Amino acid sequence: MTPLQAQLIEDEAFRQFPYKDTVGKMTIGIGRNLDDVGITRNEALIMLSNDIEKVRYALTKELSFFKTLTPARQDALINMGFNIGVTKLLTFKKTLMYLSIGDYKSASQECLKSVWAVQVGERAQRISKILLIGS
User: Fold this and answer.
1) In terms of CB atoms within 10 Å, which end of the chain has fewer, N or C?
2) Whole-prediction pTM value?
3) Main-chain phi, psi angles of 26, to 5 degrees
4) Pick the CATH number of 53-133 from 1.10.530.40, 1.10.760.10, 2.60.120.380, 3.30.830.10
């Protein structure tokens, strides 16, 4: 950490969640003015990579069969977990049970029976197909 970074952290503090600064600007992190500066595409991709890894880690921990799935099926579950959260994904009991025993047709069908599938439409259709074919 540079001396300037240390000064700015002392002056601005780290804020994990967005807040309004003293002039009413939405701010996050260490003084990042979201209203006027926003984030760059590169920063968004870094956050995306971090979020993907958090979901991957959680699914690996929660689902004993996760690592046995094809990379595409793993990615499909990560996509769902990213969208609705791992806790909510874990409520898809039948979908996950079918995946665990390799019944990909039933897993795919169960996935489409959810409220989530209605809400996200094409995304659910695409994920369901990946669960079915594995690629």
Assistant:
1) N
2) 0.90
3) -70, 125
4) 1.10.530.40
